[in-house]
């Protein structure tokens, strides 16, 4: 049988829960010595996909191969070669953290030295504490240690740095990079665009159970074939209107968008969901655009209180691909 260079290969995966079609023909590839980040809104089908790769769920359609093997039928052969970090930890609750790790390590032929791994992830301070008494961040670090202690060829990490303090996050990112440099294929799900930007060699954006985009972070942000190359962020306040009659930023966004369209500029204008007074113009950012935007503000009776131009970010791309409405 020809061997595939892909550590993980998912083709046309379909998975249903009763009437819910959680995954609807998803394709994904992860290579050795690379971090593949799976991004997507809540309920997009990321965890279901990863669980099919881990052999925890059987696909209803399509094929999943991990190291060329079927994760369900070949589960026994894959177990010593694959590391898994689950979202809920999946760890026994009444056993001390240090013992859990020792037990997991004993199942592998060539585990990492426990002291070294414990130091890396700061596990020493809670090694004697029962899993159920660990803080969320401590449990998270223990779950990561358990996933990588066996020097896996493939590691599936579900939101590895969710809820971690900055120090722990740096330690986790360093460990992930080191595993990658040692040749491990790492598949991680994350909601943190910064994590994907920092770590990922390859990004797959999932929405509605399908992969809607895939590529390097730079390639996606560079936006081959996209019309938007940058973002102009501005905050505005009405010059005269009393505070209680201020129109919402969404109204300003609509008006600015229409004004730019009349001027022949290809742009998308959004109200920044994080601030009531902030707008984002996604367009080719150049002096002409800045002139048009500030002239519009002047004509509309708005004072521009801040204006910053920047490149598109992975978050911009993510929101363009998956929209802004809540799932
Ligand atoms: N065990 C289950 N039984 C029924 N429906 C489920 C089950 N697990 C997931 N689903 C549904 O399948 C869809 C995909 O869920 P999944 O957990 O794979 O999404 P996700 O992308 O990992 O989301 P999140 O970012 O919130 O973790 C959702 O509509 C979810 O409600």
Automatic annotation (TrEMBL):
Supply the alphabetized keyword list. Answer: Antibiotic resistance, ATP-binding, Cell membrane, Membrane, Nucleotide-binding, Translocase, Transport
- The regions listed as transmembrane in this protein's record are none
Question: Is Nucleotide-binding among this UniProt entry's keywords?
Answer: yes
Major localization listed first in the record, in broad terms: membrane
Pfam entry (one): ABC_tran
Give GO terms: molecular function aspect only: ATP binding; ATP hydrolysis activity
Which domain of life does the UniProt lineage start with? Answer: Bacteria
GO CC terms on record? plasma membrane
- Which topology term describes how it sits in the membrane? Peripheral membrane protein
Chain ranges of the ABC transporter domain? 8-233
Q: What is this protein called?
A: Spermidine/putrescine ABC transporter ATP-binding protein
